[in-house]
Amino acid sequence: MMKQPFPYFGGKAQVAHLVWERFGDVVNYVEPFFGGGAVLLNRPSWHKVHTETVNDINAWLTNFWRAVKADPDAVAYHASDPVNELDLHSRGDWLFYRRDYADFLKAMRSDPEYYDAKSAGWWVWGQCAWIGTGWGRMESRDTETVNRQLPHLSGAGIGIKRQLPHLGDAGRGVNRKLPHLGDAGRGVNRQLPHLGNAGRGDGIMDTSRKEAITQYMRELSERFSAVRVCCGDWKRVCASDTTTVKHGLTGVFLDPPYAIDDRANCYDDNDSFDLAHEVRDWAIQNGDRMRIALCGYEEHDAFMPDTWECYRWKANGGYASQGDKRKDNCKRETIWFSPMCLQVDMFSTVSTPTPGATLPNERITP
């Protein structure tokens, strides 16, 4: 089990162990909305992993996972700089306003082996420095109205907004969020231990910290060595028997954008408030032949069959706790488990399939 390399809005690390209790050691694991990868990274180490396929439509996120799998040292090199506000915005401009963005996106979604290590390193560095959601949605460049985020400058808290004086062409009365610069850190920017006698500083970055980040990226690379990382529509990795049941007993973790109005936009132009209903319909149709976990709020309550187990849980507030409405949202988290999932007896460590569920066929070699 490993920690996520970056904070991710709506991550499921808190309940990952519950998912694996109900999935068990499935032969084939598919995650169409991968995000920060908390569930996969928290898979029990004793599992005999056979096939794992993950997917996300966010090209920057997918590029990170591919790059760290293929070239962890290069990603670590570009991710190990100290947090700097000017770098945060200049690198964001380079990443998200790059002239070859269309070519980058096309390559990510058409070539399963394509990646850009520099973009991956800068992206994860910024993802850890940025407060809340929105890294990747750089604001308007109108210097009179632009709202920018500042790094967190102390260990006292996060999400601090302050009004800055006019600084020339940067704009007037700009509200910026501070990048996270305190010792608490986040993701690859968190405080890491000294790993030896290689030195305590090289004028740019503490050498031991660079070594720690490099080692961590190598561990991630090892974990992802056999994981297939796709970028595109969710149906590409789970709507066909070729990618699911033909591999054997299959577990599918579904965490689509929630179909509610009072949530953050998670996928920019690809965000959808209808997608969750499409995903739910697919899950119900396949719940008797796969171990499926479907995440959401109350939008699925009226549609889920009685044979599905409903599990309510309370998420940690995180940045969502800054607003009263989002603070209430953390109490609405729900996971529905399909009839094929294992039932967990609170008085026993033994898990058994839900009564009446169809037992899986023997594994078929694809």
Task: Please write the string of helix (H) and strand (E) elements.
Answer: HEHEHHHHHEEHEHEHEEHEEE
How is the CATH topology of the largest domain named? Rossmann fold
Major sheet strand order? 5-2-1-6-7-9-8
Whole-number count of domains: 2
Low-confidence stretches: 138-148, 150-178, 191-205, 318-325, 346-366
Count of strand segments: 11
How would you sum up the global shape?
Answer: globular
Distance between the termini: 28 Å
User: What is the CATH class of the largest domain?
Assistant: Alpha Beta
Task: Give me the oligomer status.
Answer: single chain
Structural class: alpha/beta
Written overview of the protein:
There is one protein chain. This protein is an alpha/beta fold. It folds into two domains: 13-57 and 232-353, Vaccinia Virus protein VP39 (Rossmann fold, 3-Layer(aba) Sandwich), CATH 3.40.50; 62-220, no CATH class. It contains eleven helices and eleven strands. It has helices at residues 16-23, 38-41, 59-70, 72-79, 85-96, 101-110, 117-129, 207-223, 235-238, 275-286, 324-329; strands at residues 28-31, 51-55, 161-163, 175-177, 227-230, 250-254, 291-296, 309-312, 334-337, 342-344, 351-353. The strands form three sheets. A seven-stranded mixed sheet has the order 5-2-1-6-7-9-8, sandwiched between helices. Helix 3 (59-70) crosses helix 4, helix 3 (59-70) packs across helix 7 and helix 4 (72-79) packs across helix 7 (117-129).
